[in-house]
Design goal:
The complex is a heterodimer of chains A (254) and B (200). With 254 residues, chain A is α/β, with parallel strands linked by helices. Chain A has ten helices and twelve strands. Chain A is 34% helix and 28% strand. An eight-stranded parallel β-barrel of chain A has the order 1-4-5-6-7-10-11-12, surrounded by seven helices. Chain B has an eight-stranded mixed sheet with strand order 2-1-3-4-13-12-11-8. Chain B has a three-stranded mixed sheet with strand order 5-6-10, with no helix packed on it. A two-stranded antiparallel sheet of chain B has the order 7-9. Classes of the chains: A alpha/beta (254), B alpha/beta (200).
């Protein structure tokens, strides 16, 4: 009896469509969010994350409608975020059917947001998303979709975020995101060692071996990927079968 | 009618959708007389123990719930809905739960990751109504930082995370699960179906 390592497909959405960028730029249409959500639910995904990558005020209604439609397709946990700036924004995505809300830039700018969300919805519903880039001085947190340095050290921010009420950390390596160069296991292990909450590794997944590595030396509790699942390059079932065969505890029965 | 108790902070839509997909007639209720008239009750739960007990109190639902339970109406507590059946919780010292099981809910120990988030398996302590025809190695989705010790006779199945805690509680007409059946895929759906069939 062990807590299973989770495989989490991520849907980056823009104006009601799933898109995929390379290193945070250059968007490509990847399909309909409802169809992809239904497919992942069927294939044995352990959870689904939906991110509003444009996160504009104007597009808010469209995003909430997407959250509502995607929620209808799922009997697995569902996290939504992108552009969550206030308690009310978090409330809106949870009311639309998400189980957890993820925050990124707004939490860096106003860390109290994490405490407010955790007090209202519980830590288990609050996911701190961090976009991290390797700099000369160490791993640094970037904001605004990776465009701007926050000046914060990744490990220190992870610790503060958890102290303020985050119940999970979604850790994205900007250096690896969309590159298919494999997860940044060094970064993931470094952050996992700093916090008492689960860490979801993100950025760079390409091969089955990448997942095996991030659950091993990367010490990740969960691993997220987007394009390799969207393009059906890998099925979630085949990935889990591979991991189970190598001793990683995964949920095979549905 | 299966009535989902709306105390103001639960994850009602996903629970309701899961029950309806199994053919159940459901309603979300927030008034004492609706609780008394229910054929079965669901106590969903997300959030803080104190939000739960104050939510019930402010809506004058505490007494109605205790009476319904004493009168034999089948009830299923989910996550916080399980914890609320106990006397109290370390999450909200001083707040009183429904006190149907005279024990306390504890924080998960510091030597394990908390919240306990993700899919885990169960250890069955005895024959369970809710787990009927579900494979022994099935996984269920948990998301919680507090739990009740897996004491018998009320605990039908335990899960281990820091300590053995009550994952499935079955005591007369009172049933509860610490995991989220509405988020636990096919196995979770089967738990809800087992409850509905038993409650009929």
């Amino acid at each position: 009896m062990t807590l299973a390592r989770r495989i989490i497909p991520c849907l980056d959405v823009d104006a009601g469509r799933v898109v995929k960028g390379v290193e945070f730029a250059g968007l490509r249409d990847m399909g309909d969010p409802e169809e992809l959500a239904a497919r992942y639910n069927r294939e044995g995904a352990d959870e689904l994350i939906l991110l509003d990558i444009t996160a504009s005020r104007d597009g808010r209604g469209t995003f909430l409608e997407t959250v509502r439609r995607v929620a209808q397709q799922l009997n697995i946990p569902f996290t939504a975020g992108g552009g969550i700036r206030r308690l009310e924004d978090g409330n809106a995505v949870l009311r639309a059917g998400a189980d957890k809300v993820t925050v990124n830039t707004a939490a860096v700018e106003r860390p109290e947001l994490l405490s407010e969300l955790a007090a209202q919805f519980g830590s288990q519903a609050v996911v701190l998303s961090m976009d991290v880039k390797k700099m000369d001085a160490g791993w640094e947190v970037f904001i605004r979709g990776g465009a701007e340095s926050s000046g914060r050290d990744a490990a220190a921010w992870a610790r503060e975020g958890v102290a303020r009420g985050a119940g999970e950390i979604l850790l994205t390596s900007i250096d690896r995101d969309g590159t298919c160069g494999g997860f940044d296991c060094g970064l993931t292990a470094a952050i996992a060692a700093q916090v008492s909450v689960p860490v979801i590794a993100s950025g760079g997944a390409k091969t089955f071996e990448d997942f095996l590595a991030v659950f091993g030396k990367g010490r990740a509790d969960a691993a997220l990927a987007a394009s390799i699942f969207h393009t059906a390059e890998h099925s979630i079932g085949a990935l889990k079968g591979y991991l189970a065969g190598r001793g990683v505890p995964v949920r095979l029965s549905r | 009618m299966v009535c989902i108790v709306d105390y103001g902070a639960g994850n009602l839509p996903s629970v309701e959708r899961a029950l309806r997909s199994l053919g159940a007639e459901t309603a979300c209720v927030a008034r004492p007389e609706q609780i008394a008239a229910a054929s079965a009750l669901i106590l969903p739960g997300v959030g803080h123990f104190s939000a739960f007990v104050t939510g019930l109190r402010e809506r004058n639902l505490t007494t109605a719930l205790r009476e319904a339970l004493a009168g034999g109406i089948p009830v299923l507590g989910i996550c916080l809905g399980l914890q609320a059946m106990f006397s109290s919780s370390a999450e909200a010292p001083g707040e009183r739960g429904l006190d149907l099981i005279h024990e306390n809910v504890q924080a998960l120990p510091a030597n394990v990751k908390s919240p306990h988030i993700g899919w885990n398996q169960l250890r069955r302590l005895r024959t369970s109504i809710l787990l009927r025809e579900i494979p022994g190695d099935a996984y269920f989705y948990f998301a919680h930082s507090y739990a009740a010790a897996a004491n018998e006779p009320h605990t039908a199945a335990a899960c281990d995370h820091g300590f053995p805690f009550a994952a499935v509680v079955e005591k007369n007409n009172m049933m509860a699960v610490q995991f989220h059946p509405e988020k636990s895929g096919e196995a979770g759906s089967r738990v809800l179906r087992n409850f509905l069939e038993w409650a009929q």
